[in-house]
Request: fold
Amino acid sequence: MAEDKKQLLHLVFGGELKDLDGVEFEDLTQLDIVGIFPDHNSAHKAWKAAAQRTVDNAKMRYFIVHMHKLLDPEKDGDAPDPHSERI
Reply:
């Protein structure tokens, strides 16, 4: 029997930014929720695919949120980083 892999939930989402130097979205109703993934590797693949689909829109940004850090911040010992990866 294979060992169960620890769930480290990651949310991938994106939207058009108001300003290229910030993280405030133009229209919150238009956010693209790509999904929730069980590990960083699968989240990164989804993030990369979404970012590449929108590469022609300079204001469009996708993010990976480490939900496991938000759900249990004491366990990781790190402060949550809601926008750790951007393209």
Observations:
- The mean pLDDT is 85.
- The CA atoms of residues 9 and 68 lie 5 Å apart.
- The chain has one domain: 10-76.
- The two ends are 39 Å apart (CA to CA).
